[in-house]
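Next comes one such specimen:
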Amino acid sequence: MSLSKVAIVGASLAGLRAAESLRRLGYGGTLVVIGAEKHLPYDRPPLSKELLQGRWEVDKIGLRRRPYQELALDLRLGVRATRLDAAARALEVDGAGRESFDALVIATGAVPRRLPGQPELPGIHLLRTLDDSLALRAALERGPRVAVVGAGFIGAEVAASCRARGLEVTLIEPLPVPLARGLGEAMGGVCAALHRDHGVDLRCGVGVAGFAGRDRVERLALSDGSTLEVDVVVVGIGATPDTAWLTGSGLALDDGVVCDSYCAAAPGIFAAGDVARWHNPLFDERMRIEHWSNAVEQGSYVAERLAGSDLGAEPFAPVPFFWSDQYDVKIQFAGRMRPGDELRVVAGSLEARKFTALYGRAGRLTGVLAFSRPRDLPKYRRLIAERAGFEAAVAVASVE
């Protein structure tokens, strides 16, 4: 590899995996890794589950167990890249001036969305970082009434974690069911029943109209005219890619850093993880994926591209995969769901909440959902990658 300096902006999962993979592939040049947080890279999934519930402490969520010295990184934590000049191959780094590079990996992730008019009142929390999780956990130790706004994966996991702590939880979702965008309405209905069975006051088809409180949040006004007395509010309504610092950089920005099928945003400039929006030829779709497995795979793939290895010679065309642990159920999904997809349960039962369901579109298998059936995921994910027909995939289940 002839590059003398590679810069990675973003010291979380995608950025770290890119750095580790570059060293594994024999890159011996300067490797600058810039991270906005002061913490060493850590795993985010436990923030809404094990760490929030108090079952784990901070020392269990580090992403790397071996010494960082082995990677010989120029690791700069607690600083931000504030500007990119793509044409000049240079970064502006807060407090450190201009940083030139030969190649760049953008892995700045995403930032949580806020509700319109959301005030700066104590008791209102977002959840994205380790500090966010610790602050929320400390608030929950008071045993409060908790309102979670948004029943996507983060909101649903926070609600489940709060119930595990024995707290009173109201889960508010403007859509008809939880997880509708990721799983569709039918399977979202299964998730709704799961939460209600565990004592969550689930209110769908309703949003937040306003907040009230003198020194801290005390009440929510909902769009149906009702009010809710609360001590803590967790806003979990999704995230937006962290691209503000790239304005004027010369890169195309559209719900993320726009990349080609090889994760390249410009010559020598790549994006990976939550911030990357790339064309996935397997689905013929430009997509941005906010999931752990994609950050790992894309960070490693970008390193393979930079190294010029055979693994980086083909387009980046994964089958997206995510999981969520809620109560005693492991929810796993692989593929892409769209409204109107054909849906068929091929194993287990909805009533037992232990089943496998397949999604199909235009005669092709496009997705698989498993509730507490983890062994089913790999084979169907492989079939999706092979562009298998929907009926052929159903037939696989029928003979097992």
About this structure: The mean pLDDT is 95.
